[in-house]
Design a protein that fits this description.
Helix content: 25-40%
Order of helices and strands: EHEHEHHEHHHEHEHHEEE
CATH topology of the largest domain: Rossmann fold
Strand order of the largest sheet: 1-4-3-2-5-6
Bound molecules: pantoate
Radius of gyration: 19 Å
Number of domains: 2
């Protein structure tokens, strides 16, 4: 596996391979890798001739500068894990390499960006789109892999690829969970032991909620989830909504003919955790 810091070098390597009709899979990450990321890399390795992973903590997607400063960084360990997963190139650019000048592009994702994470984290998805579009232009992958934990991000990246006429297949991969059900996230590292133990209530409640769809209306079920989690003194629900998986519009009854996803964000002290489950009947 080659570790490459510069886009020109990576582009040279990949152009040669693309000319030889090698299929390129890409996994963008911000490092601090866990088993969820490794599952994306392994999927790419199994489905493509060449796999590229990027490790870049993107300043433009953090609306909270403290969050950016405290974001966990373990580049040596990450490179080792990526290599063991069978990747061919790991791209580790500096901020200057990705943003030689300020990126002022504004993406209009319409309502997709006005709900849930988009509403709570001003500018977040615009920053994600800035970096992912730049990385896509450098790597020019055939396929790119995204974890379903960041469900809204996955939907928005699919929209971005359409808007920019990029011919890249966007693949979503299932959430990887700890043994107690907590969705794996680099942010879990910041939880104290007691916060960590209590956080498993989030997924446990979502799983229980799935079994209540024939007993409760959508509104009653949403309230039930929020109350069940907020009863725990360590947890504070920021939002819980059940949305359709294409437009992210809030659904109001179970009979609607669409795929339904229950998405949640919970504050655990200063840490924000997100999770989601399918609510298909
Ligand atoms: O999901 C992430 O880790 C980031 O948002 C991404 C897609 C790597 C862009 O920085």
């Amino acid at each position: 596996m080659k570790v490459v810091d510069y886009k020109a070098e990576l582009q040279n390597e990949l152009q040669d391979l693309a000319q030889k009709n090698k299929k390129i899979g890409f996994v963008p990450t911000m490092g601090a890798l866990h088993k969820g990321h490794i599952s994306l890399i392994k999927k790419s390795v199994s489905e493509n001739d060449i796999t590229v992973v990027s490790v870049f903590v993107n300043p433009n997607q953090f609306n909270d500068k403290n969050d950016l400063k405290n974001y966990p960084r373990f580049i040596d360990k990450d490179v080792e894990l990526i290599k063991n997963a069978g990747c061919d190139f790991v791209f580790t650019p500096s901020v200057k390499e990705i943003y030689p000048k300020e990126d002022n592009r504004i993406f209009d994702f319409g309502d997709l960006n006005k709900v849930m994470e988009g509403k709570q984290r001003n500018g977040h998805f615009n920053g994600v789109a800035q970096v992912v579009s730049k990385l896509f232009n450098i790597v020019k992958p055939d396929v790119a892999y995204f974890g379903r934990k960041d469900f809204q991000q996955y939907v928005i990246i699919k929209k971005m690829v359409k808007m920019l006429n990029m011919s890249i297949e966007i693949v979503d991969c299932p959430i990887v969970r700890e043994t107690d059900g907590l969705a794996m996230s680099s942010r879990n590292l910041h939880l104290t032991d007691i916060q960590r133990n209590n956080s498993s209530l989030i997924s446990k409640t979502l799983f229980k909620a799935r079994n209540l769809t024939n007993k409760l209306s959508v509104k009653e079920l949403k309230d039930w989830v929020v109350d069940a989690i907020n009863e725990n003194p360590f947890l504070d629900v920021e939002y819980f909504d059940i949305v359709d998986d294409l437009e992210l519009k809030s659904i109001s009854n179970w009979q609607e003919n669409n795929n339904k996803v229950g998405c949640i964000a919970v504050k655990v002290g200063k840490i924000r955790l997100i999770d989601n489950v399918n609510f298909n009947l």
